[in-house]
Amino acid sequence: MAATAAATPAGASAIRPRLRAAGRLLAAGGLGVLGIAMVFGFWALVAALTNSGKFPRPLEVLQAIPDDLENIPAVTYVTFQQIGLQGALEYTTVNVIVTVAVGTLVGLPLGILMARVRTARQLLEPPLLVLGTMPLLIILPFITLWFGTARFAQSGLVLIFTILTVTMSAQAAAQTVSGHYANFAACLGASQGRELWTVVLPASIPNVLGAIRVALAAAWGWQCIAELLGAETGVGRIIGITSDILATTDLFATLLCLIVVAVICDAIVALVGGYITRWKE
Amino acid sequence: MADGTTTPDQLVGAAPAAPRRARVRLPRRGSDAFLTLVSVVTLLVVWQVASLLAGRTGVSGERYIPNVVDIAGAFDTLAYYWQGGLGVKATTDGGAVTFAGAVLGLVSNSLATLVRLGIGLALGFVIAGLAAALVCWSTFLRKVFLLPANAARMMPLLAMSPLFGIWFGKSEIGAVLFIAFATFAIIFVVALTAIDGVPGYYQHYARSLGANRFRAYITAVLPAALPSLRGGVMLALGFGWSMVIAAEFIGQDLGLGNIVNRAQEFGRTDTLAVVGIFVVLYAWLSYKLIAKGFDHLVRWAE
User: Fold this and answer.
1) Which among A118, A244, A258 has the least Cβ separation from residue B3?
2) Which residues of B touch A248 (CB under 8 A)?
3) Do B145 and A34 meet the contact criterion of CB atoms below 8 Å apart?
4) Where are the domains of chain A?
5) How far is A31 from chain B (nearest CA, A)?
6) pLDDT tops 80 at residue B95
7) Given A83, A90, A189, A211, which is the most exposed site by the fewest CB atoms within 10 A?
């Protein structure tokens, strides 16, 4: 009996922080929804005060989304192709996710190599510095001239941006770790390979995850501008066509859907990243 | 170790190893400079070989990858983008392609781009800074706007250039507002996070010294958030360059982006490369300038 009485307050005290955390999460979510509602309210106000042909009302845009999913009539009228929002979103999303993943797989080892091997750092820094300084859009005409409108060519800017962002971040993180944690591991007898695999790589992950989220956020813009300037399909292509024919409702519907997909992808990366780095203090 | 850190053997005081054959080591600074030189030379060699292997375009007969000689020779083609005046006739009015015309073409288009970029960035920074400062005055409003601000981060800003074309036509205002909008979207969320990250005790100290809430916010909280804006400012500058090129690429008759657009249409890879080199140069200078200015602004930060 006494044991039960003692267990109850202990159990309650364990549950209380979780309840509090859930309450905070709910409150933050509620405030976030309120923020979105305020943005929609502001949008409705601007739309009411301006030409609806140039600035469609939120309700019109929301109603257009289900109609445009399979096929956007205005786009079909111009291209004689059946292009729907769903197909375009799938095309762009797959391109962005695959390219950011490939860029990360290239950038992470490259950054760690640059942090650990001085010769590699001195050799790779000049070209990376030039690429990092270069406004990436200036490369797009070359990519189009060299590779045409091939699907992988559309993702060239995303790939370069991701490699640059992840490499720089991984290098900085691995350099920080190498001077401190890695020396402890070496003192405890870890081989260089083990030190790299069990200390440097895991300790770099939180920074790299941040870089991946930055790259992912920017990737939608790079992908869409590449598609806008020369692709057969994709969200960028729809943006280009709908703006040419002043189909602003379809244009806004496309942008809204893309933002929702982008936010969901970012949230997934943040969740997975949070799980992978759950050991973090 | 190559990076100069202590080895485990040195830490535990291991017995000296058997004598090894002495190796000649370059002093580190000299060795670093040598490796950088090797990197640059390798880049140039790879570029030259790629240029020879890639061949020429069918449209203009220019190389797909122009080499250094092509680029140097292509500078004069910028004369095609001079509008005429100052004693040099435009090529569209029968003027010859001259070096003076090329210099004037480069200067006039560069100035147009730089002015658009400068005004757009300044407008975006000011509006985003003011909006973030106003929103962060209230903790409630700050929490309300955090989600929409993060969603705005995901907007395909570059691809929204046609939308500004619909709203403002091919006007100067449209191009400037497009850059300002993109800058706003980046800086607003960074500023919100920066102000949110200022420790509460900053304000408490100021209040305990007699400052009212407004004065504590203006003189303690906002300045304390400034150093955290550095990354966002540099990011916005980098995007700003791409934004201005995109705006001019799609709908302006003057500017470096317009030259890029027309050079691409005519398959002039050499002109594209010349403009690319100048854009990289301008961007690099602007990064240095803004970074130095920002560091001077927050020189009091630890």
Assistant:
1) A118
2) 163, 166
3) no
4) 2-49, 71-276
5) 5
6) no
7) A189
The span from the CA of A247 to the CA of B182, in Å, is 22
Report which of residues A280 and B261 the model is more confident about: B261
- For residue A218, list chain B residues with Cβ-Cβ distance below 8 A: 239
Compare CB distances from A262 to B146, B154, B239 and report the shortest one's residue: B154
**What is the interface size between A and B, counted as CB pairs within 8 Å?**
171
**pLDDT value at A171 more than 50:** yes
Which of B38, B145, B156 faces A123 most closely, judged by CB atoms? B38
Residue from the list A54, A138, A222 with its beta carbon closest to the beta carbon of B245: A138
How far is the C-alpha of B286 from the C-alpha of B302, rounded, in Å? Answer: 25
The two counts, helices (H) then strands (E), for chain A are 13, 0
Q: Which fold has domain A71-276?
A: MetI-like fold (1.10.3720)
Please compute the mean of the pLDDT values over residues A18-33 and round it to a whole number. 79
> Do A84 and A70 contact (CB within 8 A), yes or no?
yes
d(CA A153, CA A159): 10
Q: Residue holding tokens 């190389």?
A: B63
Chain B residues within 8 A of A258 when measuring between CB atoms: 154, 156
Q: Is A234 on the interface with B (CB under 8 A)?
A: no
Output the CA–CA distances (angstroms, integers) from residue A40 to A53, A67, A250, A256, B183, in the order listed: 18, 21, 17, 11, 21
CB contact under 8 A, A125 and B280: no
A107 — pLDDT class (breaks 50, 70, 90): very high
pLDDT score of B61 = 75
CATH fold label, B110-297 = MetI-like fold (1.10.3720)
Distances, alpha carbon B21 to alpha carbons A34, B7, B17, in Å: 73, 20, 12
Residues with Cβ within 8 Å of residue A204, at least 6 apart in sequence: A108, A111, A112, A170, A173, A174, A177
Contacts of residue B145 in chain A, CB cutoff 8 Å?
35, 38
